[in-house]
Structure to design on (125 residues):
C-alpha cells in the first residue's frame, strides 16, 4: 500500500497536500482499494466554503457509495474535472491524477490535527 510521507492524512482516509495557502485533497490508496472500482465522483461544491469534517461530495464504487469529508476548513477553488469523465483515475493514481479538490485553507492550525504518514500507516495497519 502506498502512503507518501510528504502528505497529511485523516482517519476518514483523505489525504492533504499543502502548497502555500492551498490544499489539494483526495482519497488514499487504502480507501480506493477498500471501495473497489470507482464509477462516479460527485463534487458540486466549487466556490463553497466548508468547515472541517463537513461532507463536500461522494464517491460511488461498484460496491458502495462513500461520503467525502473536508479534512480542513476552506473554500473549494477547483474540482478535478478529469475524474468526472474518468473516475477510475482515482483507482489508478489516487495521489496524482486522481486528486479530488483544491481548497483555500481557512485556518492553517487545523493542519496540525492531521495524521502523518507514519500515524496513518499505524491506523490502517
Amino acid at each position: 500500500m502506498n502512503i507518501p510521507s510528504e502528505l497529511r492524512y485523516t482517519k476518514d482516509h483523505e489525504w492533504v497536500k499543502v502548497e502555500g495557502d492551498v490544499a489539494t485533497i483526495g482519497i488514499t490508496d487504502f480507501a480506493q482499494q477498500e471501495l473497489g472500482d470507482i464509477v462516479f465522483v460527485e463534487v458540486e461544491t466549487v466556490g463553497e466554503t466548508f468547515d472541517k469534517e463537513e461532507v463536500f461530495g461522494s464517491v460511488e464504487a461498484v460496491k458502495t457509495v462513500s461520503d467525502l469529508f473536508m479534512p480542513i476548513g476552506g473554500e473549494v477553488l477547483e474540482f478535478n474535472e478529469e475524474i468526472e469523465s474518468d473516475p477510475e483515475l482515482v483507482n489508478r493514481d489516487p495521489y496524482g491524477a486522481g486528486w479530488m479538490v483544491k481548497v483555500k485553507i481557512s485556518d492553517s492550525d487545523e493542519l496540525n490535527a492531521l495524521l502523518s504518514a507514519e500515524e496513518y500507516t499505524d491506523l490502517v495497519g
Observations:
- The mean pLDDT is 96.
